[in-house]
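Reopening closed ticket. The problem is back. First fold of the pair:
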Amino acid sequence: MSLAIRRPENLEYTHVRVFKETHQRLLDIAQAEKTSLPRVIEALVVYYLESQEAQQEMSERRVG
């Protein structure tokens, strides 16, 4: 019996499915917020960048 981890044969399909589901969720958010998909994506990018910046500042405080 092999304990090696195998790459799923349908990995590409899984990525496409996840992308489609994520895209649909973003569309749902845009509709609920009465805004456009680009605005939702922009807000996610800003949130991500700000959270990364905050994490970096916290790391620098711990080290310094």
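Second fold of the pair, where the issue appears:
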Amino acid sequence: MQHPLRIGTRGWRHEAWQGTFYDADLPQEWQLSWYANHLRSVWVPADRLHAISLDEIAVWIEDTDPDFRFIVEIEGASVY
């Protein structure tokens, strides 16, 4: 059985990426969709979890294809 290598980064919202990875005029709410078209996973760090609502997670799922993976860090362990 083959397992694909998934390349991703820690989060997708980085101010320094605006105008470099993201087009300069790309709205922040479109960044995840743009990111997901170029990379296959993203790490959601534990320090971000307290600020995430179920509604926000639903939008993330809607904005990415079914093959995209969110790697979620929970108290020092990563799960997906």
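Update: turned out to be a display glitch only; the data is intact. The mean pLDDT is 91. The first helix runs from residue 31 to 38. Please close again.
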